[in-house]
Amino acid sequence: MLDQFGRDINYMRISVTDRCNLRCRYCMPQDLRRESHEDILRYEEILRICRAAVELGIRRFKITGGEPLARRGCTGFIGMLKELPGVEQVTMTTNGLLLDRELDGLLRAGLDAVNISLDTLDAEKFMRITGCREAVTDRLHALLRRCCALGLKTKINTVLLEENRDDLLSLAALAEELPVDVRFIELMPIGFGDSLTRVSPDEVLEKLRGRWPDLKGTGERRGNGPAHYYESAGLRGKIGLIDAVSHSFCASCNRVRLTSTGQLKPCLSYDSTADLRALLRGGCTDEELTAALRRAVYAKPRAHSFDKKEKMTEHHAMSQIGG
Q1: What is the spatial distance between Cα 5 and Cα 26, in angstroms, rounded to a whole number?
Q2: pLDDT at residue 311 above 70?
Q3: pLDDT digit string (tens) for 126-153?
Q4: Is residue 223 exposed (0-12), middle (13-18) or buried (19+ Cβ within 10 Å)?
Q5: Which homologous superfamily is 11-321 in?
């Protein structure tokens, strides 16, 4: 479906829970008020929204949280979503700590790809950044190898922080060891991230070219996100930079977000939403649900306002919105 500016909106990020087993300092460094189970969309409600979205041309879905695998039944839900007529792709973003036990089931369910959040390979630093109480980086490294061995398309998401500035080369080197894409994500001024110092993606690219001098842009789109990808003869995977703040990609944005409480967000930087939960629980028809989706997608703003904080109206933490 086209929005009012002619952009093809074909991708929906779905948060299935606001809960997480980590406390990453840029996302949820402390316990927040949790949504009650009654306020979280049931899986059958999410599937009904997805059926309506498919009718409008939204055929690709990313499952997020919080931590999506912290919600019981997530693997089965992904299987049901994959079976909906017209769905082309279902992927997931996860911190990986619960992935190993679910991996075989997710593959049987038809999961197309996984993004694993990993901000450092240093065990002590990982615990400081994420609030994890045990050293797990070796386990996550082994998980990456297992995903690749099973043929699951795998990407690594690294948020650029002051704390991991010295770890970027070791993280990028995972694309030298394995056929994975390593993406460095500029910190967005959302929630707790607004109080932290941003690291320039241009600085990162300069540092990476010091290690891989032949690193050059590919111009290709690898998935549904806005990453600019780079390749080197010395890398098996690609390096991606997601720099939404310093290099806006709004002109080609193709996404909307569904929060765990059923609020459809056309743009991350504004708090305007369509309350789909109220519609569903108010007994709406399929036609009314589809019409609400169509109105929300069409009204998607031209651009975010990350560079104009006075215009931003979204003040929730990322875990409450859906990463």
Answers
A1: 32
A2: no
A3: 999 999 999 999 999 999 999 999 999 9
A4: buried
A5: Aldolase class I (3.20.20.70)
